[in-house]
Protein 1
Amino acid sequence: MSEAVAAEFNSADFRKAMGNFCTGVTIVTGVHGGAALGFAAQSFVSLSLQPPLVAVCPAKTSSSWPRIRDAGSFCINILAADQLVVCQTMAQSGADKFADIDWRGGVTGAPIIHGGLAYVDCRLVDEHEAGDHTIAVGQVVDFKLVDGTAQPLLFMRGGYGVFGAM
């Protein structure tokens, strides 16, 4: 980006423009020191089939990610449309986020949240600095499509919704 363009850059307008890209909603979970940890994330992507890799982009301000990183593994829980409360709970800081959430430990020990569409359990293999976020790459060690018929929870333009077939 040139200096002239950088001087004119408006982060609020950029965020608004990017908000027009609809994303699914995931919860990234892990266990550190016996405590279940988690945070909501929309920046998630399948990265490679051979080897099976995914990427998630936690904000550098996340208080959960450094502890999940230290554990060396994490699970991506893909939320169903009826799991908005789970998303809202995991988007908060502090408190025991798992107090009212039904879950079980996956292969890595990371929480798999009951009621999701799918989960992807991973071993952390790499991280890359990227502005105000980190790109975390995980090698898939286990995954399951739990419910292939339910609607996904989607996020767009600052709000939550579901997919409407055309």
Protein 2
Amino acid sequence: MFDLFFTHINQKVNLSEAEQQEVKTFFAPKKLRKRQYLLQEGEPCKYLVFVEKGVLRSYNVDSKGVEHIIHFAMEGWWMGDIYSFLSGDPSGYNIDAIEDAELLMITLDGFEQMMVKVPRMERYFRILFQNNIISKERRLISSISYTAEEKYLRLVESSPELLQRIPLNLVASYLGITPETLSRIRKKLTQKK
């Protein structure tokens, strides 16, 4: 179950076999069924998870009951509310499975112990957190600066495999547009070809 996990880690830092065995001890496997929650708004985020199989989404619901998708995670990606995970404060997000999922979960205590026992993992997570900050900054710029069509085209370019697996209404929510607008954009782009 750890094959993809260590492939992903070894793309950023090289772990010895002994370090890999040590890292394994901090993670617990978990399976989620489609639509099953990993985290519900108002609960503290107790786990940071690596997606071995499946797709998760992180979202919040506004006062009108409209879902706003913050993040998707598929195989090889991490998911969690990092603020809640590190602070213990209640999360402002829900996280659930879009597809049946297999996860590797780590608690905050395990995370801290792992950093001490396997220092290369601290470098690995520093790289991930840096990339996450860059990604969030780009998403913020996109949401305030780009047209709906430009947002969609950027998503097509950056994550085509994700678009094959996620329903269009969820893609629209992630882009901050209505499903009808997304449908018009897709139709227009198809006609251009």
Protein 3
Amino acid sequence: MGMISKKICLVGDFGVGKTSLIRRFVERQFSDQYLSTVGVKISRKTLELMGEKPDQKLNLRLMIWDLEGHTKFKGISKNHLQGASGALVVADLTRPETIENIPEHINLFLSINPKGIIIVALNKADLFTQEKLQKARQIKEFESILATYQTSAKNGLYVDEIFYQLACEMIKKNESSC
């Protein structure tokens, strides 16, 4: 059983909860304190995944790149996206403009990693109102993404699922496992 390493990037506007999703997944913690990411922060987590045979297990080391949030003054560095096998594009359900910017983030990621796998995380579902559901449904129609989830870093809603599904899909591209 060898170790496979894969790079994934979390991209999205500032303040959508990218760092909080990573902290929930890697450290099992949540904090209401907002800390803006400057540049990039890299976290690691090793997952044990099932192979295509019942007794086969794979160790996958995720290199999780937390990229500085996009603002109208500063975009995401293309250099940080290079070599990524997958991305979580994160938006804030309580801020419609972050949802509207999802296609821009998807297109940027795919322009650098055309074979990359993308999952969209509509974060802060714990603060969700029914009115935001209409905007969220439009995102699912974007054909380059694997799935869309309504997540909450605060209560853990679908956090493990988005990382595990992304991990499995990246491995499937290599070995047809998971």
